[in-house]
Amino acid sequence: MEIFNKRIDSIGSLSPESRNALLNAWESWSVPKDHFLVRENAIAHHLFYIKKGIARIYYFKNGKEITEWLALDNEFFFSIISFFEQKPSNLIIQTIEASEVMGIHHDTLMALCDRYHDIERWFRKAITGSLILSQYRMDSIQFETAQQRYEKLLTNYPFIVQRVPLSYIASFLGITQETLSRIRSQH
Question: Is the model's pTM score more than 0.85?
Answer without folding.
Answer: yes
